Amino acid sequence: MTPRTIRSSTLIRHLGEWRRPGAGAAYRQLAGAVRLLILDGRLPLDARLPGERELAQTLGLSRTTVSAAYGGLRDDGFLTGGQGAAARTSLPPSRNPGLTRPPADAQGEGADVIDLTAAVLPADPNIHAAYARALERLPANLPGHGYETAGLEELREAVAAGYRRRGLPTSAGQILITHGAHNGLVHLLRLTVRPGDAVVFDHPTYPQAIDAILAAGARAIPVALPDEDGEEGWDVEGLACACRSHAAPMAYLVLDHNNPTGRMMRAADRLRLLAAMKGSENLLVLDETLVELTLSGPPALTASAVDAPRMVRLGSMSKSVWGGLRIGWIRADRAVIQRLAQSRASFDLGVPILEQLAAVELLNDGGSGLAVRRPLLRARRDHLRARLAERLPDWVCPRPAGGLSLWARLPAPISSALTQQAAEEGLRLASGPRFGIDGAFERRLRLPYTLPEAELDQVVERLVRAADRVERSGRRPAPTSLRPVAVY
Q1: Which one, of 370, 456, 439, lies nearest residue 92 by Cα?
Q2: Which of 174, 293, 365, 369 lies in the 20 to 30 Å Cα band around 378?
């Protein structure tokens, strides 16, 4: 694998306004800014940074200043390579905690445990009625063998109709029904990726997607999302460059709304991305599980009506309706759908008929279920942000345009330690590094706002106690021997 090279222009864009008058020597400020970029995952690990002379000229500094900054980063374990050799990003062993889970004594079920590892809502009030109607319609399907490789025709048509309402002409032949969006991604990886191939993705991203990419034997190539306050953009040039330089057969992106950040890519950036990848053989896979959960600003459905032949979309009812309804789908070119239908027989034999019939009932409700849920989620999002600002004012919690969670920025790289301490307070969390690779995002924490306000108040109080324990004990996360926690 060829490590990624960070160009001077890219590094400067990430650094932003890194130098402040009266904040100390320039080399210390530069080293601190680069260190933060590494900890936050905006600079991938084992990436080659610009040479000292090149960076000094670009920043208008002396080479001595840049050399001192790089030297300090090497001493602290954030860069490898001796002086005169290429500087590559790294993490000190104590800052590379891997994947964490709550201690064993906090994993049992109990009324006093609040679980925030799943950003999901309880079942839609219409779920039971939909299953009852589906059960009434089931006898009409019993004479058949029940193996619908691509899915029931009426469900595929209901899904296709949803895309048409978004301005994306779609037929039932372009839809394959799956066991949720994750299952759809696994099918696409099996069809498209071979061991050793690169898969590019936006960083941070959905943890189970990273797990699926690695399980397929692929090389996970992260492209960091810009992380400035209020910044909603994607590194479009970085995504296209990573796809080309690694000859990646697939890119997996969550543009509406990114899990965990909640941000949404603008329509203009989507067009720029398609233009930058024109002529590429890369399959662009868009996970749209959260596309209908816009809470502020223009709907994501409007921006997402940008299409291309090699663009594949994953959809699901798990976030907008209920996680227990394992219904998802793939929208793609007819030829891709046919190949997927043929290849899935060696992996699974289709989706249960009853669940598909229930999904038809729910998709044909005219959007009434989501119309009730959006105001509820909006109120809970704003409530959680207000309580965090009151009780933990040094945490930065941007207001996401949609989705189901906040992506909080912590005052120090303590996410794994905080997760462990919170478990002792009866609060299950997914630490920041669970949403990236190589130990990134120790200064980040995903906080779902799907619980009622009273429970969110308890969440904040337990976070306050956990943060206080971390500060008093000075604990750092345990080594990489901890097993991963499932995150939804």
Answers
A1: 439
A2: 365
